[in-house]
Amino acid sequence: MKSKEIIATLIEKITSGEIPVDSYMQSESQLSAKYECNRHTIRKVIGYLLERGYLIKDSHGSSYVNDFSSFDNDIFFLSSLSDFYTSESISSKIIKLNLIKASDKLTKTLKIEKAANVWSILRVRYIKNIPYHIEEIYMPYSLFPNLTRTDCEASLLSFIESQYDFKISHGIKNISAIKLTLEESKLLNLSGKPLVLQFENTGYLTNGRIYEYSISKSHENNIHYYSRR
């Protein structure tokens, strides 16, 4: 198996509880035999899981499952909710999916031609039927001409990398505090116009192209995260 497939499998096992919190991972040799790959691939997989807080390494160098459920580490990586929750726990409500002409701001941000076609997506993401955040997403039509409503209901990161075989490189994020509008508060089941965290992200592919500009508004107004030295 490839490292990407092994990572996805182990994340699913960890988030579902099949591999319980505080349990130790099998040795490199055991995992390489189980997933039919070399030990270098397993080291890459374990390194990824350690970096993103799924695992912790003890003083003897062994890795065990971290209780990451109370942390907000997903905001610091280009992650999908499916990296932290089981697929059964996640759902989406698509408020709108429109093809628009790029404004001057979108033309500059996405580095596309003036008035080029852009997908405009507004959706609410839910965890166990509880509103998690509102996402306003803009994606160049030239990169994703076949985008559908069904695609937007699932993980767009997975869609981009699997359906188009693009490789995502990195994102540049800006975090700020904003007040929700009454309409946004209603979508998140909040009252009034509360102060919440807003995350702006400009996402880049490995070829240097910008694949999205997004604005995510959380139902929270603070961050609690796990950091490694």
UniProtKB/TrEMBL annotation:
GO biological process, one term: negative regulation of DNA-templated transcription
Keywords, sorted A to Z: DNA-binding, Transcription, Transcription regulation
UniProt GO MF annotations: DNA binding; DNA-binding transcription factor activity
Pfam families: GntR (PF00392), UTRA (PF07702)
All copies of domain HTH gntR-type, residue ranges: 1-68
Protein's name according to its UniProt entry: Mannosyl-D-glycerate transport/metabolism system repressor MngR
Lineage, uppermost ranks: Bacteria, Bacillati, Bacillota, Clostridia, Eubacteriales
